[in-house]
Amino acid sequence: MDSFQVKTSKKAEVLDITAEVSRRLKPGSLCTLFIPHTTAALTINEFEPNIKEDFERFYSSLVKGRDWKHNSVDANAEAHLLSSIIKPSISIPIHNGSLALGTWQKILFIELDGPRTRTVNMQVIK
Amino acid sequence: MDSFQVKTSKKAEVLDITAEVSRRLKPGSLCTLFIPHTTAALTINEFEPNIKEDFERFYSSLVKGRDWKHNSVDANAEAHLLSSIIKPSISIPIHNGSLALGTWQKILFIELDGPRTRTVNMQVIK
Amino acid sequence: MDSFQVKTSKKAEVLDITAEVSRRLKPGSLCTLFIPHTTAALTINEFEPNIKEDFERFYSSLVKGRDWKHNSVDANAEAHLLSSIIKPSISIPIHNGSLALGTWQKILFIELDGPRTRTVNMQVIK
After folding, report:
1. Which residue in A54, A82, A98, A101 has the most chain B C-beta atoms within 10 A of its own C-beta, making it the best mutation to test that interface?
2. DSSP code at position A25
3. Which ipTM value was assigned to this complex?
4. B18-76: per-residue pLDDT in tens?
5. Is the Cβ pair A30, B35 closer than 8 Å?
6. CB burial readout A102-119, b (16+ within 10 A) else e
7. pTM of the model
């Protein structure tokens, strides 16, 4: 298993980690990315400045304005709830030595309770 | 990696692609499906006419009626947002040479910005 | 492929199945969990009593109060809709013989139409 760090700079933000993953890609057939966090998530989508802001507003809209019980313990229930539906893992086929991503697809790290230093784990299957 | 095409006929629709995946299944232990698109998604669920319509209404209800910034560039922000939570990938165990799907489980291609010709990539791990 | 059963006791509840998965883990590099059900889902997150209740309220809030067509056939449309976005599968890297889970990460079985006896399938890739 390979790992790298991501530094996030805001409470909630979406970061493009495609280059870091591609640089560390080992030969194989399937690359599984997995983050060991419960208040962040991984996905794949387009990444341009407008949609970046839409992602943040969209995720927030799904959970905001309610009196979550976990917030009496730690003020990040919204982050846990979103992480539980978007999830911390994604698997991408490898084709001819590269990630088989489409033209507009970027691997996105979704910070939901930053800023923090986060870890991304990579497991390549032969 | 194996691939096949899916033709969608509406702006938003859910299609059952189980038969196409099963027909192309090679021997192995795990089948990962991955679509190289950012305005569609993959899932697994039951597929009968009533639930098909419910899926389309449900996904739309999560994103509709808001002024997404990406729509100033390209009028499909809703499709990107939904694709980013449902995601473009799913892994299914293979057991005795077949996909280990439950009685009611079908592999579903979710078109969110059609009609288009779409690609489904399949990677089988030994 | 290995399998085990989970007994759920309520209509909707979230159960921690980490210990059952760890106990059955075989040597390898990637563990894929897959449930053969269309009215339940799998995820990974923290599991403490407050957030457990928040999960149940959050999922319900996304689908409730609408007149789903599938409910004319079988009164569990909400469970199908939630299962279709959270999905029945999750892949976790194996590192030094153990699941590479973070400090707060637990593997969670999400029952959406119980109580039932459910199956969890595990496929470990070498």
Report:
1. A54
2. P
3. 0.97
4. 999 999 999 999 999 999 999 999 999 999 999 999 999 999 999 998 999 999 999 99
5. no
6. beebbbbbbbbbbeeebe
7. 0.98
